[in-house]
Amino acid sequence: YFKTKFQNENGQTYLLAIDPYFYYRMTRNVVNNGNQWDYEDENGKYHDTKILGGKPLGEGSDIKIYSFHTHLQYYFYKIARLFNPNVDLMAVVFLTPLIIGALAVIPAFFLTRKVAGDIGGFFAGLLIAIHPAFLTRTAAGFSDTDAYNVFFPLIIIWLFMESLDAKTLKNKIILTSLTGLNIGLFSYAWGGWFFILTYLVALIGGLFIYYIIKNFKTIIKNPGSIMKIEKIKSLSIVSSIFAISTLIFISLISTPKKILSFVVGIIDFTQIKDVGTIKIWPNVYTTVAELNPASLGQVISQISLGSKLWLFIGFIGIVLSLTYIKKNNVKYTYFIIASAIWYVFIITVQKSLTNHLFYSILISIPIIIWVLYSIFDNQEMDIKYTLILLIWFASTIYAGSKGVRFILLLVPAFSIACGIAVGKINQILSNWISKELHINKIVTNVVIIGLFFALLLFPTNFVKAGLNVANNEIPSMNDDWYGVLTKIRDESQPDAIINSWWDFGHWFAAIGERAVTLDGGRQNNPQAHWLGKLMLTWDEAESIGILRYLDCGSNTGYDTLLNYMNNESLNTINTIYEIINSDKDEAKTILSNNGLNEEQINDVLQYTHCNPPENYFITSEDMVGKSGVWAHFGAWDFTRAVMFNQVIGKEEIEGIQILTGEPFNLNDTKAKLMYNEIQAAN
């Protein structure tokens, strides 16, 4: 009986979270309309009428389906219908993350197998499959884009490594082109795709530097011989094909503009939670739970499940990924022992370390020292796996400082490193034991592998942790929510708008099938301030005025008035507040007093004082606990935000002049205090 409260009318369990309902709605539109949008206008443009309720429809899109995830779910649905014509779309959507998550195991196996054999590949795939940080975001029912953040990086790195090792030009071209193809698909599947391209660019650059240093004397004597050095020549060929194929496939699969977002995306990522530095409106991303910064301890604990032993195994795996061309080097054995001691030290003092970047440097020190020594000692090594793992570890540990959700990106690197360690240790020990103790290799392998299996269960039980994630997942959606939203869908006018805090917006659009003011994909908009203000204010008339403002034009009233008031943002927002609390005639007078002519006044009032559509305002118990969040945005001080924008980075004399002048008019004492406060907040 309890389970039925989390199932729809067909007995299908609801999707687990909120965001999956966005892709569910898009896929349903494709099934019903042939495209992901709500309708196609007379000019062949596609429009979504559910997002940013009240905002006038823009030019629309030329693309029928812009989401890779929507494409995939739709084709899964078509395949499922071949076996069951009456299959519930939600059932197909429910299983999609399970399929993608399972497929991620395959490239993990083959990538690790290149370095550490079948046993290493098996353990890497196993860790991917059961890791709680991965399962939490890819359990059946959590049909979001998170699974691609593991699947595509793994298959891209695997294909690129294979292209570097390929013996013939034909194979290099095929494998490198497939790498570019998958980067193109990844750029279409997830907005943060650029990180994997960054890794590969860094890897190529690092390998070029290494090969040049290794052959420095030869190059100095004869600079023209640089392309005759086999490794440099091979890397140059692969790099060229990689650059060309990546540009082509990103342009064809996504858009040429995505290529520019490679640089822009990195910059935006580092500024994802900046507040008030560009616009006067608050940044909602500062309160999105999954974008809360994770401490270094949290990153390490989540990725290793608090197991110091498996963290140590992962670090040793990075060291063991260094492959000698000439084997049986005794010094290499000493290096491994010294590295093990170093990592024991790092793990021991870990609680006292807080800086993500510094920690990454500490991890890299043994590798850097040994690579430099091997160059000096003229030792031949294959460093590409070690280099990519270091890049992967360092960048994703840093990413954790920008948001908890980015810890997921570290799962593949950690799993591969652990797989390499298991495979290599098994090879080293089994060879030594069979040689020195004359014990059959098969017996030795079984014992060693059994030992590592035991380590997955004790002292930290990885398997149980993964099972707990799977068993304890319960949908946020239930029959009460579903019933309310279907009632709105069945009884409201088609142009009705649902208002609430942004969290459940995707539910409102997908199940209620009505426009919403904000949702989880567009929460960082000025409407967040208005929603917070209408709940915060004691004045019911003001709340009604804000609802009318939102339903008539979303925040278009402000944007329109800003243009007529010479982009004076503070004066504009103050004027909007005046007319929101006024009737239409009073609003006309206010706008006229601000220098607008009759045409301009009517242009603004259509977005602030229309005859609004039917409105539903939904509150839920969770909003009480979130009151500090929405109240923060509702109480946003625009005057201080404008001060911040105009004064930040200015010299003290210039900054104080701004604060004592129009429109702030602070006295010298308050201006100096405010200037210091602004500079300290930067």
Keywords:
2% strand; three-stranded parallel beta sheet; mainly alpha; 682 residues
Largest sheet: 3 strands, parallel
What is the CA–CA distance across the termini? 54 Å
C-alpha geometry:
globular
| Beta content | under 5%
Query: Strand sequence of the main sheet, in spatial order?
Result: 6-5-7
Please, what is the average pLDDT? 90
Characterise this structure.
The protein has helices at 20-33, 68-83, 89-103, 105-130, 132-138, 148-165, 169-189, 194-214, 216-221, 230-253, 257-270, 296-304, 308-320, 330-348, 356-376, 384-400, 411-436, 441-457, 462-472, 479-491, 505-512, 527-536, 540-553, 556-564, 569-580, 584-593, 598-605, 622-625, 627-634, 638-647, 652-660, 668-681; strands at 39-40, 46-47, 323-324, 381-382, 497-499, 515-516, 615-617. It has 682 residues and is mainly α. The strands form three sheets. Strands 6-5-7 form a three-stranded parallel beta sheet, with helices on one face. A two-stranded antiparallel ribbon has the order 1-2. β5 (497-499), α21 (505-512) and β6 form a beta-alpha-beta unit. The two termini are 54 Å apart.
